[in-house]
Amino acid sequence: MTIGLDDVVAAETALSHVDGEAGRLIIGGHDLEELAGRVAFEDVVAMLWSGLVPEGIADPQALLGNARVRVYGHLAPLAVRLAGLTPVEGMRLLLSSLPDAEDDHPALAVGAAGVAAAVAVRGAQGLGPVEPDAGAGHAADILRMMRNGPVAADEVQGLDTYLVTVIDHGLNASTFTARVVASTQAGILSSVVAGLCALKGPLHGGAPGPVLDMLDAIGRVENAEIWLDDAIARGERLMGFGHRIYRVRDPRADVLKAAVGRLKGKDNRIAFAEAVEAAALKVLERRKPGRRLDTNVEFYTAVLLDALGVPREGFTPLFAAGRTAGWVAHAIEQSRTGRIIRPQSRYVGAWPAQAA
After folding, report:
1. Fewer CB within a 10 Å sphere, N or C end of the chain?
2. Is 74 a catalytic residue?
3. Where in the chain is the domain with CATH 1.10.230.10?
4. Are the C-beta atoms of residues 208 and 301 closer than 8 Å to each other?
C-alpha cells in the first residue's frame, strides 16, 4: 500500500507534466521557461484550454475581461460579509456563492477567481471592492482592483509571470481534489471551490507566507548564515527550500527570480532576500551533505508578491487566481471520462465478534 498515493497514476492528462529528476515543468506541450514572462496569462489559458473548450478562444483578454465585469455584479454586494474572514476564507465565500447554472463556466470561473481574490484581500483590510476594467489584462486588473490605484508595467509583468508560473503543476493536492469533484459531474465552479479548499492548507498553497516570517526573523544580511544554521540545528525546516517532487532546482523558482529581478532597486527587500537565499544554500550544503535541497517556488513567490505590495495573507488567493485556469482544464478533462474517481481503502479496524 502507498500512503499518500505517491507514484500512483490516478489520471491521464495532456495539461502538464512535472519531471522532478530533471527539474522540468511542461505546460500544454511547452516548457515553463517558454511561457512565463514571455506569453501573457490570457494566451496561456487559451493554449491550455485548446481542445477542451469547444468553441475555442479567439480573444482571450476580452473573454476574461468580460467575465470579470459580469461576475463583479454578483460578488460585490457580498463584500460586506467579509469582515472577520481571512482573504482565502473570503475568496471561498465569494466563489461558493456563484450558481452552477451559469453559462460559459470556464471563463466565468477564471474571471471570478481574479475578482474574488482582489475583493477578499481588500475586504480583510476593511476596504470596499473596486470595479474591474474589461479592457485591461487579467494581471493588470487584479493588481488595480486590489490597490484601487495605478500599477506600473513592470509590476504587471511580474504578476502576469507569476499567474502563468502557477497555472498548472501536475496532479497536486488541489488539482486532484478538483478532478475528484468533477468526476461526480458536480460542475466546474464546484470543482474550483473544492480546489481552493485544498489549496488553503499550509502544506499546499499556504506555504509562501512563512518565507517572509523567516526573512523578518533574520533581519539583517549579516545575521543570515548564523540564524539559518541555528534553525537547522533545532530541526526546523528552512521555508522556501526543498520540494517533495523536485530533486533539483524547482524551475518555477528561476522564472520567478527573473521576474523579481525586474523589480529590484525599488522600495522592497529583493536584494536582502537574494542574500538570504545564497546563505541558505550554503548552509544546507554544509549541514545536509548528499541531499539536494534547492530553492523552490515558495521562496520567490513570497519575494515577488511582497514586492508587489500584496499582504502575505493574500498570497494564497493570488495563487488560486492563477491555478483556477488549471483546475478548470482538469475538471473538463476529467468529466469527459464519464467515470467517477473511487479508490479503495484497506480496513484496519476491529472485526465484529463471531457468533457462537
Report:
1. C
2. no
3. 209-307
4. yes
CA distances from 29 to 10, 18, 19, 91, 293 (A): 20, 12, 13, 31, 27
Residues of the chain with CATH 1.10.580.10: 29-201+312-335
- Tens-digit pLDDT profile for residues 173-227: 999 999 999 999 999 999 999 999 999 988 777 666 789 999 999 999 999 999 9
Read off the C-alpha cell for 348: 484496519
Task: Give buried/exposed letters for 63-90 (b at 16+ CB in 10 A, else e).
Answer: bbbbbbbbbbebbbebbeebeebbbbbb
Q: Which architecture characterizes domain 29-201+312-335 according to CATH? A: Orthogonal Bundle (1.10)
CATH superfamily for 209-307 is Cytochrome P450-Terp, domain 2 (1.10.230.10)
**Active-site residue, selected from the candidate residues 42, 155, 298, 333:** 298
Distance, CA of 171 to CA of 316 (rounded, Å): 18
- The question of whether 243 is a catalytic residue gets the answer yes
Q: Considering 105, 138, 169, 243, which one is annotated as catalytic? A: 243
Q: Note the pLDDT tens digit of each residue in 320-345.
A: 999 999 999 999 999 999 999 998 88
Return d(Cα 13, Cα 329) in angstroms, integer: 10
